[in-house]
Amino acid sequence: MVALLCYRCGSPDIINGDHGDGIPFDGLGGVLGHSFFPTDGRSHYDATENWSDDPGLYETDLNSAVLHEIGHLLGLGHSQDKNAVMFATIDHGVKKRELQQDDVEGIQTLYGTT
Ligand SMILES: [Zn+2]
Ligand SMILES: [Zn+2]
Fold it and tell me: 105 catalytic, yes or no?
């Protein structure tokens, strides 16, 4: 299990270790990235992860991580729904590229339905 933890730290950048916002990355595994909540807009990704566009058993799907982080940038917190994009963790090799009902309801709560 790999964490997709996102703190209030806050250009989509892929960065190593300490990158100047007081929330250093932890190397391979663990935290994959983090983003600030609105209206900051910064989103950071740990360069030491095995990122992939088509992840194998020991790789992490960059698309899924970025989609999750965009949720935070828009103001969403973590979901309790294991299938949701906004669930706090993702397994290696798993793609979560489609918003689930819980993700949709979260964003509609923030921004409305029209
Ligand atoms: Zn998160
Ligand atoms: Zn950061």
Answer: no
